Amino acid sequence: MKIGVIGTGYVGLVQGVILAQFGLNVICVDNNEEKIKNLNNGIVPIYEPGLEDLMVKNIQEKRIEFTTDIKKAVLESEVLFIAVGTPPADDGSADLRYVLEVANSIGEYMEDSKVVVNKSTVPVGTGHLVRETIQNKLNQREKKLDFDVVSNPEFLREGKAVNDCLRPDRVIIGTESKKAEEMMKKVYNVLYINETPFVFTNIETAEMIKYASNAFLAVKISFINEMALLAEKVGADIQKIAKAMGQDGRISPKFLHAGPGYGGSCFPKDTKAIAEIGKKNNEELLVIEAAIKANKKQKQKMIEKVTTNMGNIEGKVIAVLGLSFKPETDDMRDAPALDIIKGLIKNGAKIKTYCPQGMKESKWRLEEYKESIEYSENEYKAVTGADATVIVTEWNQFRGMNLRKMKELMKDNYLFDLRNIHGKNPEVRSLFKYYAVGRK
Ligand code: UDX
């Protein structure tokens, strides 16, 4: 069976490589020629552990190829995955332009029956819009061809995308067609025989499962962050609170780590998008809207934490360790570090920073602040001469830092540990004026 994957962003590329790894023949399409050239040469444009090796192996074994020719992919594939971006429009809703452009091309080029699978995170109802768009094109061409639309949302985490795709917690298949359902079982045969849980449902339910899952996790993080703010005021310890809460099986310990707020390509975008879907359907989603507001407040609170504890940060040098929205990725989309750095600079500070993967993207995202930011070669160079160090992302190499050396290199000894990675080190409080999240 040949599979076409349209869009080679995070989702499309990982999906394509994993399907090839499952033994299927895959053709991946993107309109960016440079990217396709690199991919055919085995170069992955993103930092995602394990992905490049797996891709190169599947290129060598001739199970995956990359092209800019969408017509070829449509003609050759039985199943077509749509995995293009759905960036937020001005009102926060998902912009469906690229999804519908692809649907249009499918309608334009198909010559036999297809299963069209939506992998992009799209508002409820998009599956039907995709169907309509393809059908309209077929009508224009006066072609009578059979096709099915399936919603098959992804749940991969950046940095763990390969594993999440190889061993998903569940596979969601939303379709009204029995035939398409059987086809999807064949596509995911490896997972199906491995007894991965499959949920077969209608398109709308599948589309909503994705938003509901992401929004729930975002609410969970905002909840624990809010508890952390209170814990600081009353003298409680958020890590103990989270651990004890997590021991209740109904709550679970996952996604209960207090920090500087959630970021990334999914939670900020998807919470806003589902809130917008709520409004369009005359249903205000109060809990999700509160989580969005709380996340904004959390980042502001981190800026205040540094500024008020240091008294005045005018002219002070602040080392920021970790820029990417989480470890093991170079992704800077909605990374809390961006807002925190901007806030510290607005309050008068100069920034020295180091991140194992996030510096390249930060340079253009923080272009207008470049006079106030110095990018360092490593974490020790970044803290040299600094009045304060702020750990924003919990990369393992920051966990393992030599704190004595760090203190010696710094000018003053403020340490703001926004991921609570050094709290258990008995030395940390004697070496530094130490501030964590969610405890005094
Ligand atoms: C998320 C979902 O986990 C994934 O299922 C979905 O497909 C895409 O969105 P991702 O954005 O890659 O994945 O990262 P994730 O590990 O979920 O973290 C998101 C953000 O929440 C990060 O900024 C992270 O630092 C933050 N977070 C996560 C916390 O602050 N505390 C936690 O306990 C967990």
Automatic annotation (TrEMBL):
GO MF annotation list: NAD binding; UDP-glucose 6-dehydrogenase activity
Name the pathway it acts in: Nucleotide-sugar biosynthesis; UDP-alpha-D-glucuronate biosynthesis; UDP-alpha-D-glucuronate from UDP-alpha-D-glucose: step 1/1
Per UniProt, residues of the UDP-glucose/GDP-mannose dehydrogenase C-terminal domain are: 319-424
Question: Is Acyltransferase given among the entry's keywords?
Answer: no
SUPFAM superfamilies this protein is in? 6-phosphogluconate dehydrogenase C-terminal domain-like (SSF48179), NAD(P)-binding Rossmann-fold domains (SSF51735), UDP-glucose/GDP-mannose dehydrogenase C-terminal domain (SSF52413)
Q: Which family does it belong to?
A: Belongs to the UDP-glucose/GDP-mannose dehydrogenase family.
Name the domain of life this protein comes from: Bacteria
Coiled coil stretches, renumbered = none
Name listed for the protein in its UniProt record? UDP-glucose 6-dehydrogenase
GO terms classed as biological process: polysaccharide biosynthetic process; UDP-glucuronate biosynthetic process
Q: Enumerate the Pfam families for this protein.
A: UDPG_MGDP_dh (PF00984), UDPG_MGDP_dh_C (PF03720), UDPG_MGDP_dh_N (PF03721)
The catalytic residues are C266
Signal peptide range in chain numbering = none
The record, for InterPro entries, names: 6-PGluconate_DH-like_C_sf, NAD(P)-bd_dom_sf, UDP-Glc/GDP-Man, UDP-Glc/GDP-Man_DH_C, UDP-Glc/GDP-Man_DH_C_sf, UDP-Glc/GDP-Man_DH_dimer, UDP-Glc/GDP-Man_DH_N, UDPglc_DH_bac
Keywords assigned = NAD, Oxidoreductase
Write the Enzyme Commission number(s) for this entry.
Answer: 1.1.1.22
Q: Where does substrate bind?
A: F155, L156, R157, E158, K210, F255, L256, H257, A258, G259, G263, K326
Q: Which reaction does it catalyse?
A: UDP-alpha-D-glucose + 2 NAD(+) + H2O = UDP-alpha-D-glucuronate + 2 NADH + 3 H(+)
Tell me the residue numbers annotated for binding NAD(+). D30, K35, T86, T121, E158, K269, R333
PANTHER family to which the protein is assigned, alphabetical: UDP-GLUCOSE 6-DEHYDROGENASE TUAD
